[in-house]
Amino acid sequence: MHSGRAERISAHMGVHDIISALADGWRDFAAEPAKGLFFGAIYAGGGLLITLLLSYYRSVWLILPMAIGFPLIAPFVAAGLYEISRRRSREEPAPWREVLSVVWRQSRREFGWMAFVVLFIFWIWMYQVRLMIALFMGLKGFSSLDGFLVALTQQDGRIFLVAGSISGALLSFVLFCTTVIAMPLLLDREADFITAMITSWRVVLENLLPMMVFAAVIAILTFAALLPAFLGLLVVLPVLGHSTWHVYERAMKGAS
């Protein structure tokens, strides 16, 4: 096991690599649709459950930031998708038992520490939203989501939207750089989570344009998938999970 040292990166990527990885991700989903839909249902079901709970406890104003922030946990749940793509790349079968056992094993490895990092960033996002609402919109309560959306059209609400968008973009960038390579690397190799995070940042910074294109694709597709009551996540997040594995393969090609 390595400690605090980035894995050697031998491949420099272009935008064409991202396009190819997305195409490979779609092919993986099409080849194993039941498994992809199973993992996608975890995201979609989790989003719907959170929405119902917030509505029940009359915290509907939290639905919008929760919906935006909820996909931040996607990289952790994607271990099964990475395993499917890894096996397909090696032309190996991907039975349910093996895929699910890999997901279970990750909880006992460094993957668990990465999950803590991801959830901590998600917690920061939710705390910032509450703080900015208090700063820009006062301590008023919102009895309905419609009322909250109407408040966003007012001057204080527009300022909140701008500040929240900037804050969310920065947090999303940090999370993307930290996890995009780290998560599949921890599944694929014996490395500690510090090494994985350093490697992930190096890959992004050394391939900034293509990786930012990939980040933009993730953001646009995920946001679009949220609109039909989270149901778009059934397909979008599995495809993005598979694609992330193929980006990782291209980034680490030939690395020891």
SSE layout:
Elements: H1 15-31, H2 33-56, H3 63-69, H4 74-77, H5 79-89, H6 96-106, H7 111-137, H8 145-152, H9 155-179, H10 182-188, H11 193-206, H12 208-226, H13 233-251
Helix pairs in contact: 1-12, 1-13, 2-13, 5-6, 5-10, 5-13, 7-9, 10-11, 11-12, 12-13
| Element-by-element helix/strand order | HHHHHHHHHHHHH
DSSP helix count?
Answer: 13
**Low-pLDDT segments, ≥5 res:** none
Helix content: over 70%
Question: Distance between the terminal alpha carbons, to the nearest Å?
Answer: 13 Å
- What kind of assembly state do the chains in view correspond to? single chain
From the alpha carbons, calculate the radius of gyration and give it in angstroms. 19 Å
How would a textbook summarize the main sheet?
none
Mean pLDDT: 80
Shape: globular
- Whole-number tally of structural domains: 1
β-sheet strand percentage:
under 5%
Find the structural class using helix and strand composition: mainly alpha
Number of E-type strands: 0
